[in-house]
Design a protein that fits this description.
Order of helices and strands: HHHHHHEEEEEEE
Oligomer: single chain
Mean pLDDT: 80
Helix content: 40-55%
Distance between the termini: 63 Å
Number of domains: 2
Largest sheet: 7 strands, antiparallel
Strand content: 15-25%
Amino acid sequence: MGETLLGLVGGVALILLAHWLLVRLAGQGSHYAAVLVALVTVGLYIPYAILRWPGADLFALHLAIFLLASLGCGVLFRAHGRGEAFHWGPTVISGFFVFVAISGALFIIVAERGVTPSLSRWLFPAAESGREVTSVFPGVISHDFQKKEALYNDYLQRVEAQRQRGWQVRKGWVSDPLAAVPTVFRVAVQTREGQPLTGAEATGEFLRPSSSKQDVPFKLIETGPGFYEATVTLPLAGRWNLVLRIRKGEEIHEVRAVTEMLGR
């Protein structure tokens, strides 16, 4: 049983116990007990979730099930205290939301941990390649926020260092760029003082927004003091993104731009 399921079951059990204590022992009304337990649950769970953030999906799931449990307890204890039978309307509506919450919990648990080996053999066909088949799908968004913050801080430092370095970069096509036609791409680099930057290594990549398979990397050759050229052939007309990197020693200068290729 996964940690998520344990947390859900344990939370619902505590909510049921709190309702029972308030109604049976403290003599409170079922509606008052439901509201009080719901407020206490929210007040305790939100700070806990902030300190140990599980992700927005698990946060919403826990909060929804805990509030549904409080609502269900309020209805259950009220009807039981009056000796009334449950009306089918509220019962069906409550049952629907309980079903949605439980299904969501199961989907998240399966995505995080996968199904058991025996159930996997029953559900999935044997892989012809002999590779192991897994049902785990943790998602495509990383929850490693500290790593993201460190990478962003490193990016800001590199941007500030580049600004202080003050290299001046001019770039462009020597002639009208036509799709599928080799065309010379030239870059001129000067230092902050306006002197040609010689002996640098210049590389770049033209990126096709519609498909990364059509990206075209290239390397420029120094043809004169501070001038770097490469003959590039872009296969399609339209918009291309440019990423240009100029390195000299330990210093790296990056330029991003956009260009348009003309049709023939």
